[in-house]
Write a structure and sequence with these properties.
CATH topology: Porin
Order of helices and strands: HEEEEEEEEEEEEHEEEE
Strand content: over 45%
Structural class: mainly beta
Shape: globular
CATH architecture: Beta Barrel
Radius of gyration: 18 Å
């Protein structure tokens, strides 16, 4: 998470452009009470298409995430190995035409299955309701923290602080219930390119606390006097389940996220 400020500043220069069909956050159905299970998420952006596929265990926990780039030899796989004593090992295997690279991360979970510690440097804290309220990281010569303000079951503000500076992001939502899907699609979407929430290893997998109540419709970044707005338009199927989200930046660039289901 070191120097999240740099990640926020990159929002101003993100270069994305893709067409996506949306219906201005409307949906003819009200949605079922049974959550549909996401099998794949497809991102379309300026340089191509990336597909992210999910595997689950019998308890509905993510066990593998596979990422492929359709127009290149890039691939990546993350394996979630749940052990005893509230331990989680995340093994990442990356490969491309440039060679292979693997990494191994150890995390500690609380009794609700939320990550509280990642390796020896990152700490995650939650409120009494199970919502993530802060992520902090430190080493010998640096510390930083991002805190989250929740209201009505949604993150309405994220604030970055370090020994040098601070920045903030505010978020807007519609009234469609996130409970209709098994993943928190806000985390998947907002962490895809912009990293505006900076949830570690987040594919909306439930490892970082309770998920959002509603679907995010945009955010505003304030960074060193710079302000940029991003809008999100969702489309839904006839039963009210989300099928696409179009993310549009203030400079006119954009990307599209498409959701596929197992059931």
């Amino acid at each position: 998470m070191k120097n999240i400020k740099i990640l926020l500043a990159l929002l101003a220069i993100v270069s994305l452009s893709i067409a996506c069909t949306t219906d201005d956050n409307s949906g003819s159905g009200s949605g079922s009470s049974k959550a549909r299970v996401v099998s794949k998420i497809i991102f379309e952006y300026d340089i191509g298409v990336r597909e992210v596929a999910f595997k689950y265990d019998s308890d509905g926990r993510i066990t593998r995430v596979t990422r492929t780039q359709t127009e290149s030899e890039f691939y990546g796989e993350s394996y979630y190995n749940y052990g005893s004593d509230n331990e989680l090992e995340i093994v990442e295997e990356w490969g491309s035409v440039y060679g292979d690279d693997n990494s191994r991360t150890l995390a500690l979970l609380n009794n609700k299955g939320y990550m509280t510690r990642i390796d020896d440097s990152m700490t995650l804290s939650y409120d009494s309701k199970g919502y993530l309220v802060s992520i902090s990281e430190s080493d010998e010569d640096w510390w930083d923290e991002i805190s989250y303000l929740w209201s009505g079951g949604n993150i309405v503000e994220a604030e970055y602080m370090s020994e040098e500076d601070g920045n903030s992001i505010t978020f807007d939502y519609n009234n469609k219930p996130m409970s209709m899907v098994n993943l928190d699609l806000n985390l998947v979407l907002s962490n895809w390119r912009s990293k505006v929430l900076y949830f570690p290893y987040s594919y909306g997998d439930g490892l970082t606390g309770r998920k959002s109540k509603n679907f995010m419709t945009g955010w505003t970044v304030e960074c060193d006097g710079y302000e940029e707005e991003t809008t999100i338009s969702w489309s839904y199927d006839e039963d009210g389940y989300p099928k696409e989200a179009l993310v549009e930046y203030e400079d006119g660039t954009e990307f599209c996220m498409t959701i596929k289901y197992k059931n």
